[in-house]
Design a protein that fits this description.
GO terms for molecular function: peptidase activity. Keywords: Hydrolase, Protease. InterPro entries: ClpS_core, Ribosomal_bL12_C/ClpS-like. The chain has 4 helices and 3 strands. It has about 90 residues and is α+β, with helices and mostly antiparallel strands. It has a single domain, classed as Ribosomal Protein L30, Chain: A (2-Layer Sandwich), CATH 3.30.1390.10. A 3-stranded antiparallel β-sheet has the order 2-1-3. Helix 2 packs across helix 3 and helix 2 runs antiparallel to helix 4. The termini are far apart.
């Protein structure tokens, strides 16, 4: 096996090991669209358009993945959403 093939193999193994987590936002009958949009902009660094699209998906589908990444980054973001009265979890 050449050194180039060995390096490519190592990179593929590293990529497979890194598990991406998600913040999933769930629909509720309490929060307004404006509140959800504002919180997604604040907690998840969404643009206004991204936040609006996620809010619509949550409303019609019941849930939406609003952010992906490392658990260490997502946990505090999810806590902000929960403290704001939204229903969310990191999976």
């Amino acid at each position: 096996m050449s050194s180039k093939e060995k390096i490519q193999e190592d990179v593929l193994v590293e990529e497979a090991v890194d598990k991406q987590h998600e913040i999933v936002l769930y629909n509720d009958d309490v929060n307004t669209f404006d509140h959800v949009i504002e919180m997604l902009i604040y907690a998840c660094d969404h643009t206004a358009i991204q936040a609006e699209q996620c809010a619509i998906l949550v409303h019609y589908k019941g849930q939406c993945t609003v952010k992906t990444g490392d658990y260490e980054d997502l946990a505090p973001r999810c806590s902000v959403l929960l403290e704001a009265g939204l229903s969310a979890e990191v999976i």
